[in-house]
Specification:
about 50% helix, binds 2'-deoxycytidine-5'-monophosphate, Rossmann fold, single chain, five-stranded parallel sheet
């Protein structure tokens, strides 16, 4: 006999590769929870900004990370983020918070504090975790790991379209430059550089539709969830 067990699925990759859309659709398809780890780093950056704490200050931003009271909950199709009961879903998507999140995420003290938090939030399995180091550092024993990428131009084009649709039009060239800068900083940092786990399935989303990507991930997850009982 066999049954489906609820596993931990990680989806890593650079900004704009389609992680958020893929992770959300996959979570819905599998009836799994969705843990958006980028939103956690963004929440640390937002809290620092609101308290007048510099993003370059490792000790003060790590203290914010340790005390972060964060909650995720779906409202319709949207994964909402609350900090101490305050809905920050839109506020954490502002372009300056993207830069702040990248800066605070380079502090080892902040990453250490958030490691515990992420593991607590994913306890019990049945969760899709979306991030940049979730398959390598945060959940090295995850049963299904994916590394999703796309060309830098395609990723910039998607980010411009996403922000424009959200009523925040941005300059295409500035966005391309910012994504290149963030890639460089995220890939070259000493702590948890953005690299695929050795056992991750690599997916290039520039050449596939969203549906095709989700279909292929769901098939892999289901194959790995089968448990002999
Ligand atoms: O995926 P995102 O754009 O929401 O991530 C915001 C920033 O947070 C990004 O610049 C890098 C950082 N981050 C990280 O270092 N590790 C993660 N697991 C998720 C995000």
């Amino acid at each position: 006999m066999s049954a489906n067990k609820k596993i931990v699925v990680t989806i890593d990759g650079p900004a704009g590769a389609g992680k958020s859309s893929v992770a959300k659709l996959l979570a819905r398809r599998l009836d799994y929870r969705l843990l958006d780890t980028g939103a956690i780093y963004r929440s640390v950056a937002l809290t620092a900004q609101r308290r007048g704490v510099a993003w370059s200050d490792p000790a003060a931003t790590a203290q914010i990370a340790r005390e972060l009271d964060i909650q995720f909950h779906f409202v319709g199709e949207r994964n909402h983020v609350s900090l101490g009961g305050d809905d920050v879903t839109d506020a954490i998507r502002a372009p300056d918070i993207s830069q702040g999140a990248s800066q605070v995420s380079a502090h080892p003290e902040v990453r250490a504090a958030l490691l515990d938090l992420q593991r607590r939030l994913a306890a019990g399995g049945g969760v899709v975790v979306e991030g940049r180091d979730t398959g390598t550092i945060v959940f090295p024993a995850a049963e299904a790991k994916f590394f999703l990428t796309a060309s830098v131009e395609e990723r910039a084009r998607r980010r411009v379209a996403e922000l424009t649709a959200a009523g925040r039009p941005v300059d295409a060239e500035v966005t391309l430059r910012e994504i290149r800068e963030r890639d460089e900083r995220d890939a070259s940092r000493d702590v948890a550089p953005m690299v695929p786990a050795a056992d991750a399935v690599l997916i290039d989303s520039s050449t596939q539709t969203l549906e095709q990507v989700v279909d292929s991930l769901a098939a892999t997850v289901l194959a790995r969830s089968v448990e002999r009982i």
